[in-house]
Amino acid sequence: MNVLLCICSLVIIITSVDAAEVLSSEKVYVKDLSKRFVKLLEAEIQTCVTLVSTACKKEPMLKQLEVVQKTLSAFELELTPDCFTNSQEYTGKRNTTKSGHVCQKWNARAPHEHSYNNFPDGSVDKAGNYCRDPSNSGAPWCLTEDPKTRDEDCSVPRCDTL
C-alpha cells in the first residue's frame, strides 16, 4: 500500500510540474489554467484512490479525496481573478466589504431590510451573502451584518485594471 501511495504522490507531483510548464509556455488566463490544473489533479487523485482502495479500505481514501477536492476548490478560487466588467453581472465569491464588514445574506431581512431582487445568480437565495450590485450603482457592494453600517462597497476591482 505504501508503494502505491508513493506512486500516486509522484504522479500528482509530475502533474503539478506539467501544469507549471503550461503556465510558463503558454499565454493563458490564470482562471483557465487553474481549472485545467484542478481537473488534472482530480483525475490523478481518482486514479490513485481506485488503485489504493484495492489494497486497503476504501472509506478512508474517499475521505482523503474529499479533503483534497475541497483544498483544490479553495486553490481554484484563489487563482481565479476576482474582478468585474459589469457590476450587475458580478458573480464572484467575495463576501466582505472594503473595511472588512461581513456581508448580510441577501435573503435575510435583518439587521437591514431591503427589497432588492435583481441578482445575476438567478435568485436571492443563490446570491448568498456575496457582494452584488442589485441597485446598478456601478460597483459590487452588500448590506452588512453590522447593525450600525447598512451597506458598503466591496473591494472588487474592474477587470480592465488588472
From TrEMBL:
The keyword Signal applies. Residues 1-19 form the signal peptide. It comes from Sinanodonta woodiana (Chinese pond mussel). It comes from the Eukaryota. Pfam families: Kringle (PF00051). This is Kringle domain-containing protein. InterPro entries: Kringle (IPR000001), Kringle-like (IPR013806), Kringle_sf (IPR038178), Serine_protease_kringle (IPR050759). Keywords: Disulfide bond, Kringle, Signal. Disulfide bonds join C103-C142, C131-C154. The keyword Disulfide bond applies. Residues 86-159 form the Kringle domain.
